[in-house]
Design brief:
Layout lengths: L2 H19 L2 E2 L6 E2 L2 H14 L1 H82 L4 H69 L7
Antiparallel strand pairs: 1-2
Helix pairs in contact: 1-2, 3-4
Length: 212
C-alpha cells in the first residue's frame, strides 16, 4: 500500500469517526443521527482505496495455499515411493533367503539319501560277505561301522549346509531392513527440509493485512 493510499484511507477513516462523534444524539437514547449521503460517500471513498490491496492480499494467500498444497503432495509421493521401495527390497530379500534355504535343504536331503543308499549297499555287501565267509565276522562289523560313519558324516554335512543357508538368509534380511530404515530416514530428512522451505516461503510472504 503506497503512502498516498495510506494517507487517503486514514483521512476517510478520520472523517468517518468525526462524523459519528459529532452526530446529534437522539433524546433519551444512545443512538445518533448521521447524514446518510455523506456517510455513504465516505464509505465509497474507502472502498475505492482498499480493493487493490485486498486483491493483492488474496493473491498472496492463494499462492501460499498452492505452495503448501504442492509441498504436501510432493511429501506424500516421496513417502509412497519410499514405502514401495522398502517393501520391494524386503520382499526380494525374503524370497532370496527362502530360495537359499530350500536349495540347502534339497542338497542336504540328497546328501543324506546318497549316504543312506551307500550305507545300505555296504551293509548288504557285508551281509553277502558274511554269508559267503561265516568266519569273517570282522568284515561285517567293519561294513556296519563304515556305514554308520558315512551316515554320521552325511548328517553333519547336511546340518552344516542348513546352518550356512540360515545365516545367509538372516544376513540378507538384516541388510534389507537396514536399507529400508536408511531409505525412510532419508525421506524424513527430506520432508523436514521441505517443510522448512515451505515455512520460510510462508514467512517471506508475510502476514496478510486484515480488511478494515
Amino acid at each position: 500500500m503506497t503512502d498516498h493510499t495510506l494517507a487517503r484511507a486514514d483521512e476517510v477513516l478520520t472523517e468517518l469517526i468525526e462524523l459519528v462523534e459529532t452526530a446529534r444524539t437522539l433524546p433519551m437514547s444512545s443512538s445518533c443521527v448521521i447524514p446518510r449521503e455523506r456517510t455513504l460517500d465516505l464509505l465509497d471513498a474507502l472502498r475505492d482505496v482498499l480493493p487493490p490491496e485486498l486483491a493483492e492480499a488474496r493473491r498472496v494467500v492463494a499462492q501460499r495455499d498452492r505452495t503448501l498444497s504442492e509441498a504436501d503432495s510432493i511429501a506424500h509421493e516421496q513417502l509412497r515411493q519410499a514405502q514401495e521401495e522398502a517393501q520391494a527390497t524386503v520382499t526380494a530379500a525374503r524370497e532370496q533367503a527362502r530360495t537359499i534355504v530350500e536349495s540347502a535343504e534339497q542338497q542336504a536331503e540328497a546328501a543324506v539319501s546318497a549316504a543312506a543308499a551307500q550305507a545300505s549297499e555296504l551293509v548288504e555287501a557285508g551281509r553277502r560277505e558274511q554269508q559267503q565267509l561265516v568266519s569273517a565276522e570282522s568284515v561285517h562289523q567293519a561294513a556296519v561301522a563304515e556305514a554308520a560313519r558315512l551316515g554320521a558324516e552325511a548328517e553333519q554335512r547336511a546340518q552344516a549346509m542348513l546352518a550356512e543357508a540360515r545365516e545367509q538368509a538372516d544376513t540378507l534380511t538384516g541388510q534389507a531392513h537396514s536399507y529400508a530404515y536408511s531409505t525412510l530416514s532419508d525421506l524424513v530428512d527430506n520432508l523436514h527440509r521441505l517443510a522448512a522451505t515451505a515455512e520460510n516461503g510462508r514467512a517471506a510472504l508475510g502476514q496478510p493485512q486484515p480488511p478494515a
